[in-house]
Design a protein that fits this description.
Strand order of the largest sheet: 2-1-3-4
Strand content: 5-15%
Distance between the termini: 28 Å
Number of helices: 9
Structural class: alpha/beta
Order of helices and strands: HEHEHEHEHEHEHEHEH
Shape: globular
Length: about 325
Amino acid sequence: MNIRALLLLLAAFPAAAANFGNTSMGKKPYGVLLLAYDTGGAWKTELAHIRSELKGVAVESVESAGDGTAIQRGLDRLKTQHVSKVVAVPLELVSESPVMDELRYLFGIREEPTLDKPDALRPGMAPVKGKNKSALVFTGKGPKRLISDAELVLTATIDKSAVLAEILADRAKALSPRDPAKEAVILVGLAPRSDKGLDVWKTAAAAIAESVRVKGGFRESAIIWVRDGTRAGQQDDDRKENKATLRRLITQGGVVAVPLAPDGRRVGNLLQRQLGTSGYRWNGKGLIGDPRLTEWVIAISKAASTLSDVRQYRDNAQGGFR
């Protein structure tokens, strides 16, 4: 099954879950591996809650989805629990992102790795080092794919479900309880460092923003992006374009903004650094604390447990993280 068919299949399952267990696998138990990133204190607490709600199956989590070594260790921990299949659930919100492309490579779905790095240097420019520990930057020939005797399944991201737009619309409406139709809604997300990757990400994020507008009944939708570890010229261009977007929306009415992230603190800090705090009202909760996130994880992992191993590419017997 190719990745497009897999995404379409997984996206079709509803977010609500009931009677969760591993009966769909018969005598073959499966485990769930949660793939998170940028995990602060609140996000770690949320992960612990999600793990506790996954009843009847082995559960592990990884706090840096771009760290192949950490993912391999998570798989190894599940191996000790004698699972025959691992369902990996990425908690990245945008399907078209470097995080997801690299996960697809590690899980043997994508042929080539992806490097989340700034565009090529121009003469005289110094290298840029990002502060984000989850940045996908590799040296040499790139990362080796994951090793697992158990079957591996990588689920779709939550933007393939209506749940994401519903949660974000409710976050935005909390800032505009009287008349959302007079307000514009902005989604603010952490975007790829590469400008080429940014264009793809913007298209995907804009589609999510429009879904939020429709769900919440807002006047207009837009996106603003923030980036860490990009070059000065990229930062200037980002600031200029995002300021123009905000200025246009302000002239037409009120503006509310929510993070396109599980935990909005990092995105909120970068947004304030780029644009300040005036001209919009901010709800930085993200997805943390909304029970629909946990319900979606339960439903998508149960649905994916019936699927076959997704690996199309594998390293040789000596490859992989060990």
